[in-house]
Amino acid sequence: MEAACQCGAVRFTTPLPSPLALYVCHCDDCRRQASSAFGSSAIFPRFNLPDSELLSCYRRPTSTGQTLYCYFCRNCGTRMLHSVPNKNVISIKAGCIQGLDWTKAIHIWAKNAMVPIPEGSESYTYGPPSSRNSCAAYSSPGSSSEGSYDQPDELMGNGSCHVQDVHESTK
């Protein structure tokens, strides 16, 4: 799948023809980050990003003490991906990807939804159940949000991945 920022200066191809999961998150943090009623994230295996001087990184602490790396285009400001060290997946902001099947989107933190969730959609009042995803929230310390869950626990890396960390491939 092809992904690009709004201005098209940062582009890449996803490592799989479809995401491992597609989340529509209604938590406070995702709404603020997206400046919208919800955030959307497509989960893919970790891969090396294209070398681009326009790809910049904002880092913030999570409620678990980890660092969340948030990548964006310096030219147009589009947030493109999120990465947490020691996980073998990354979260690509779904609006950047062409050709996603939105009928498979999983709505999480639905109790905070500001817009109706499509009838028949898989949705959860809070984060997905532990059988689907039980990773730690991405909320900032002291945040009123319960968190956003956009990287499945069962796909967490153990630190032995041979793929270069996304946050190390960009300056």
Automatic annotation (TrEMBL):
Extent of Low complexity compositional bias: 134-149
Keywords carried by this UniProt record: Lyase, Metal-binding, Zinc
Ranges where the record places region Disordered: 128-171
Gene3D superfamilies in UniProt: glutathione-dependent formaldehyde- activating enzyme (gfa) (3.90.1590.10)
Alphabetized GO MF terms: carbon-sulfur lyase activity; metal ion binding
Keyword Lyase: yes
UniProt xrefs under InterPro entries: CENP-V/GFA, Mss4-like_sf
CENP-V/GFA domain ranges (all copies): 1-103
Record-linked Pfam families: GFA
Top-level taxon in the UniProt lineage: Eukaryota
Membrane-crossing segments per the record: none
Keyword Cell cycle among record annotations: no
Similarity remark: Belongs to the Gfa family.
Full protein name: CENP-V/GFA domain-containing protein
Lineage: Eukaryota, Fungi, Dikarya, Ascomycota, Pezizomycotina
